[in-house]
Amino acid sequence: MKHFILLFTLLCCATWSQAQETALYECLYQYKVNGTDKNGQPFSDIYNGILQIGASQAKFMDYTDFQSDSVTQTRPDDAELQKEYDIQVLKTPCYFDQTVYQNLPQGKMTVLSVITPDRYVYTEDLNHMVWTLTKGTDTICGYPRRKATGTYGGRTWTAWYAEEIPVSFGPWKLAGLPGLILEATDSENIHRFSAISFRKAKIGIRPLDTTNTLDITRDKFVKAKNLFEKDPVKNLPIEAISEMEVRKFGEGAQDRSISINGVPLRLHPNGYVPLEIQ
Predict the structure, then answer these.
(1) Which residue, 119, 126, 155, 208, is most buried by CB atoms nearer than 10 A?
(2) What whole-number distance in Å separates Cα of residue 141 and Cα of residue 51?
(3) Helical segments of the chain, H only
(4) What interhelical angle do 79-91 and 63-74 show, nearest 10?
């Protein structure tokens, strides 16, 4: 383990100034959302995400997007395989639609997300949370972890981090601790990120691409996103629609996708439970 820590530290020092697409490690997470549907019945939606960890920055994204990126980088000439993974991105019933670049630019994080029919980008401070380190230890993915609490977006979070993995990154926007965040849950037990695998990187971090995105502030985006997702069909601005595409991949409702002006319209069968309420 000491050898691992030393190796990781040396890699960080040696590659700090290299191109942003350099990746060293990957941490896969399960993101679970607990809620109550319109009939008053409890539900749990399960998402899969991945954190690509570089020397000076990290990127959190939906796992199906990562798989598609992997095909693009490793099989660039296989158009059929790329199409297959692009379809999987559209079909995924629980898709995490925020891509978060941590420490890009330095000291900030850049977030790409969607309010159909538009794609948006905004930045905010990387260290937006004031963490309180507390007593408590446990083990996850084979690593001893320590406990911390902090507040962000109207929710209070409890996080468990591993000092043996000396990076200040974590799932989604959760960052700023003296070790990789392996697990985090809010005080109401609605949202939970849990690491399920930590491994050496398989592909590079695709550079930030803001083509066809609109700039916005974080506060304006959160308010607009939460309002839109209460009823996406009702809140879709009709005057903004220039093109609509419905694709069927099978007979089930889950085997179809809707795109407006080339941007997916994702419906939440159990309702939308926002990560950020402020």
Answers:
(1) 126
(2) 15
(3) 2-15, 63-74, 79-91, 218-229, 232-235
(4) 170
- Centroid of chain to Cα 204: 17
Amino acid at 171: P
| Residue of 221, 202, 153 lying closest to 50 (CA atoms) | 202
- Residue 257: Cβ within 10 Å count: 18
Task: Kindly write down the DSSP assignment for every residue of 50-116, as one continuous string.
Answer: EEEE-SS-EEEEEHHHHHHHHHHHH-TT-HHHHHHHHHHHHH-SS----EEEETSSTTEEEEEEEET
pLDDT at 175 over 90: yes
Encode pLDDT of 22-51 as tens digits.
Answer: 899 999 999 999 998 888 899 999 999 999
pLDDT at residue 252, as a whole number: 64
Cα(177)–Cα(13) distance, rounded to whole angstroms?
19
* Contact indicator for 49, 98 with CB cutoff of 8 Å: no
* Residues 169, 189: Cα–Cα separation, whole Å: 22
